[in-house]
Inverse folding.
């Protein structure tokens, strides 16, 4: 998770929502990514999506059933759908998202009974660190928008 937090810091420094993701296979990191939605002007450029694509390239297959994704924030429905389709074995995340999370926050697509795959979920790993980075980012965003409005 520390590596995922380092990726989230890269996003923060690039003025992106600070979410980082790392995919591990056989105790080895095979993919790292951070949110790049603004940079790439692409709504699908979430850290998880970019990490999944990189992991698929590293493995040489779209099936990632022996991999674990570490991500600083609970995946959204888009990312959760991709995780299920890639058949990831496990998702480990830091901070829950009760409004939009799809790994048990607002819903649980990772273990949805009618889908073809269920992913193991571990939540709350290094939660304080993950949460504080997100909170600091959005506090700065609110402050700068308030300052601009004065």
């Amino acid at each position: 998770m520390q590596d995922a937090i380092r990726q989230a810091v890269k996003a923060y420094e690039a003025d992106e929502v600070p979410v980082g993701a790392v995919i591990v296979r056989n105790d080895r990191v095979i993919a790292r990514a951070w949110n790049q939605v603004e940079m790439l002007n692409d709504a699908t450029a979430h850290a998880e999506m970019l990490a999944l694509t990189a992991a698929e390239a590293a493995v040489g297959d779209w099936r990632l059933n022996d991999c674990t994704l570490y991500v600083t924030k609970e995946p959204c429905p888009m990312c959760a759908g991709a995780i299920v389709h890639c058949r990831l074995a496990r998702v480990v995340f830091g901070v829950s998202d009760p409004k939009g999370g799809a790994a048990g926050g607002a819903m649980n697509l990772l273990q949805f009974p009618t889908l073809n795959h269920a992913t193991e979920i571990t939540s709350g790993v290094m939660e304080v660190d993950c949460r504080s980075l997100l909170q600091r980012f959005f506090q700065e965003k609110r402050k700068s928008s308030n300052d601009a409005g004065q």
